[in-house]
Design a protein that fits this description.
By secondary structure, the protein is mostly helical. It has 26 helices and seven strands. The strands form two sheets. A five-stranded mixed sheet has the order 2-1-3-7-6, sandwiched between helices. Strands 4-5 form a two-stranded antiparallel ribbon. Helix 6 (about 140-150) packs antiparallel against helix 17 and helix 8 packs antiparallel against helix 9. It is globular. The protein starts with about 30 loop residues before the first helix and ends in a 6-residue tail after the last strand.
Length: about 675
């Protein structure tokens, strides 16, 4: 009797360019099981270690997490305060996670940030599973997961409390489900991808859907069923996406606006205006002014451009253009493997050109490669303010596509194509790592030269091995060693920068990666620190004590959500954020504010005062007080960055301030003038 083996054959070293990878996964070997456990535990340990060094992280979202831990309606809508006056300017999925954790374990830095780190473990596991299924190689899956965990922007944002972490986890889940669907034209898996992207939309709106075209194109081209069925499956996935996101949009429409918080960032208190306007096309086209037009200096003063571009806005970004993804802070956060990932996309498409339409590896390359290209083009053409950490959205695409390129070169390492392809990937990673490390030349100067030397030697060896005369003398094992050494050298830069990112304290609205940066001296930066101190948690202890002693619905009102958030975290009391994040939101109106004061719903109005540098004077006059909402009559040259002048002027005209440091406190419960 003939015995038939159930195990699929491994690809032979002489496979042609059209030879597919194995038809299915072989049983996991011991080193593969150990490797997966080590990858996930190592990611968890690295990302959870000393995570509370980041404190409250971004106070804006921390305050919303605190509000959600105190009040179910605040949790549902993502309110900035438990009194439900106004929301944060994003959908609430991220707040659901952190707020629920606060309800279960008590609100703290750990209860807020630990879920973010655990999302990193989940994202690494999903990318491992996606690449493993695409290649039928657990080794490739382990490499993909390790590359993602060693990406600096991932190490930064999965230990932070912005909504980007949950959005990228859901985008990765969508990619995994799509790759699962590609093998057998699984409509159910494709619908699950739609559900994942629906909730990604509820995490950060249109940015969460930027992966959608890549997933749809890959399924339409690769799924092993008729074109008609593929179209029906995509329609089903679209329906799943609409249902999984649309229920919340419908909720905001049906819930009476008078009994829910104002949807921050919108002009008419509607969710879709926020999606398409402030957080959509207005941001992409650069039509968001970020409230800067509200903060005029007193007469006789002018803010230098270097301060105006950083104050209250978007830090760490370069101008739009093709080089944006490779320069400045963005370059350090995401670009380490970006050139190699783009090269890998081309390499895989060429290598699999003659493969059947349903080729799984090419399908996965379309998922990750198109994800990378589409999102990358969007980021390079975006005209509005762009935080460098937005590029977290392509972290899984870079890791996945780079790994697919390495896998294909490894599979064909006995051929000239595989050896030349591997050499190109090694040079792209090692060479670009050298360029990036050169930009921070004082940090570990030996590292960039070591990586460049190893990568160059490995690439030269692989190129030499591509020639027939040399290939006959060089055994396959030697080629394998060169590929492994070159890839490890290429990963050295990104891994080192991610490792340097993990122990650093990251707070505020624009965190950055890498080793600690020295504080820049000079009056301009001293002024910026003075202005942002009120926003970043440096609340006067006496002011916090005053707010804690209040009994009204809101302890205080203050311009801008970032300032209100800091006061809430310092006092653990609800604070009204006048004008929302940018001071552009039309709430409260002066009439509304007067009613809040008259009905004793708010106790204090707070205004910060900042001493302007003498170097900012543009005339011989020190500045004349013409607006009581701008500065203190007794302190010429002091500025109040107040967004809503109507309310500021009304308060100054009817109440007398008490000063605590540089904060003017108006008691609104005393009789008005």
């Amino acid at each position: 009797m003939t015995t038939i083996s159930a195990e699929p054959a491994l690809p032979d070293a002489t496979d042609t360019t059209t030879a597919p990878p194995p038809a299915g996964l072989l049983p996991a070997r011991r080193w593969e099981r150990v490797g997966l456990v080590a990858l996930l535990i190592g990611t968890a340990a690295a990302y959870l270690w000393h995570i509370t060094v980041n404190g409250m992280g971004n106070n804006f979202y921390a305050a919303a997490a605190w509000a959600g831990s105190r009040n179910w309606e605040a949790l549902l809508f993502g309110s900035l305060d438990p009194g439900n006056f106004i929301t944060v300017d994003k959908p609430p999925v991220s707040q659901w996670v952190m707020g629920l954790s606060g309800q279960l374990f008590g609100f703290s830095s750990a209860s807020m940030l630990v879920p973010q780190a655990l999302m990193a473990v989940a994202a690494v596991a999903l990318l491992y599973a996606a690449v493993t299924r695409a290649t039928d190689s657990r080794g490739a899956g382990l490499l993909a997961g390790a590359v993602l965990a060693a990406t600096p922007v991932v190490a930064l944002m999965f230990r932070f409390n912005n909504p980007d972490a949950v959005m990228v986890l859901l985008m990765t889940a969508g990619a995994y489900c799509t790759i699962r669907a590609l093998r057998h034209a699984g409509a159910r898996w494709l619908m699950l991808a739609g559900v994942a992207l629906g909730f990604a939309f509820l995490a950060k709106m249109l940015e969460g859907l930027m992966v959608l075209p890549a997933l749809a194109i890959a399924y339409l081209l690769v799924a092993p069923t008729s074109l008609r069925n593929r179209l029906w499956h995509l329609l089903g996935a679209a329906a799943a996406l609409i249902v999984s996101s649309g229920w919340y949009v419908l909720l905001t429409m049906l819930w009476p606006a008078s009994s829910r918080p104002y949807l921050a960032g919108s002009t008419d208190n509607t969710f879709m205006d926020l999606v398409l306007g402030y957080n959509g096309f207005a941001r992409f086209l650069g039509h968001n002014h970020r409230g800067g037009n509200h903060f005029e200096l007193p007469p006789g003063y002018e803010m230098p451009h270097s301060v105006g571009t950083g104050f209250g806005g978007f830090g760490g970004f370069s101008g739009s253009g093709p080089d944006r993804m490779f320069t400045g802070e963005i370059g350090f956060e995401i670009s380490w493997l970006l050139p190699a990932a783009l090269l890998a996309f081309v390499l895989v498409l060429i290598s699999r050109w003659r493969a059947p339409r349903t080729d799984q590896l090419r399908g996965a390359a379309l998922v990750f490669g198109l994800w990378l290209v589409i999102d990358g083009v969007a980021f390079t053409t975006m005209q509005g303010g762009m935080h460098a950490y937005y590029t977290l959205a392509i972290g899984p695409a870079v890791a996945g596509m780079f790994t697919l390129g390495v896998y294909e070169a490894w599979r064909r390492r006995d051929e000239a194509f595989g050896r030349i392809g591997a050499a190109a990937l090694v040079l792209a990673t090692g060479g670009w790592a050298f360029v990036l490390l050169q930009r921070n030349a004082e940090w570990l100067p030996w590292l960039r030269w070591t990586l460049l030397l190893v990568a160059a030697l490995a690439a030269l060896g692989l190129l030499a091995a591509a020639f027939p005369a040399m290939s006959r003398r060089l055994p396959t094992r030697a080629v394998s060693v060169l590929v492994v050494a070159g890839v490890l050298a290429g990963l050295g830069g990104t891994s080192a920068y991610a490792a340097a990112t993990l122990p650093q304290e990251h707070v505020g609205g624009g965190p950055s990666v890498g080793p600690a940066k020295p504080e820049r001296p000079g009056p301009t930066n001293q002024f910026r620190r003075a202005v942002t101190a009120f926003m970043d948690g440096s609340t006067e202890p006496q002011v916090a004590a005053l707010l804690r002693d209040t009994t009204t619905t809101w302890s205080a009102a203050v311009d801008r959500s970032s300032v209100a958030a800091s006061l809430e975290l310092a006092s653990r009391t609800p604070v009204i954020a006048i004008g929302g994040f940018t001071s552009d939101d039309p709430v409260p109106t002066l009439a509304d504010f007067e009613n809040l004061v008259r009905t004793r719903q708010v106790t204090y109005y707070l205004a910060q005062e900042v001493q302007l540098p003498d170097s900012w004077k543009v005339t011989d006059q020190p500045g004349v007080l013409t607006d009581p909402g701008q500065q203190s009559p007794s302190a010429p040259g002091r500025w109040r960055p107040s967004g809503n002048k109507d309310i500021a002027n009304w308060v100054a005209a009817h109440y007398t301030p008490t000063y605590y440091g540089n904060v003017a406190v108006y008691n609104l419960t005393t009789p008005p003038h």
